[in-house]
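Fold these two proteins, one after the other.
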Amino acid sequence: MTKEIPLTLGKVTIVDDEMYDILSVDKWCVTSKKGNCSAVRSMIGANGREGTEYVHQVVTNHFYGKKPGRRIGHIDGDNLNNQVENLYEIEKGAKHRSKVR
């Protein structure tokens, strides 16, 4: 089952039930790069500096643990579909995609 989390600009991001309670406590925004929308939030890092965190990062870190430098793609090309089964890891220098691990 999936749920929607509201974003700015009237958009929503789709997440698995398990992630909804974790993600819905924060305010998420929509950002657009090259016409592709993503769900993000501002955060203060361990170094005290403000940064940006993406929903797909939170989801993959929750299910597979943190991995520095991990790049995530969306199988269906919709960056607002953040269901775990829609995410894959983009291997550095690879021309193909693999499941997140």
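Now the second one:
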Amino acid sequence: MEEEQQKIRIQKIKLDVWALALAFGTIFGLYTLFMGGVAAWLGLGVEFVEFVGKIYPGFKPDFLGSLIGAVWGFTDGFMSGLILGTLYNWFLKRA
């Protein structure tokens, strides 16, 4: 009976779209930089870097390719976070 009398308040929390976009961009960028570096210096994951290089032009298993991949990764992650955060906030308004 007491449970019925208590009102459960659910708070809708809006995302900071720019912060999410920057976080995603940073994570994607650092990941591609790391994978390019590992492929260049240790020879591990070369096939992965070459595969992703088909999507990110210039991303190769060498130093310059790692930096180019990091820029592409940041851009891709930033745009993904921006779209995801915007869609989340849009759906939150309609829920």
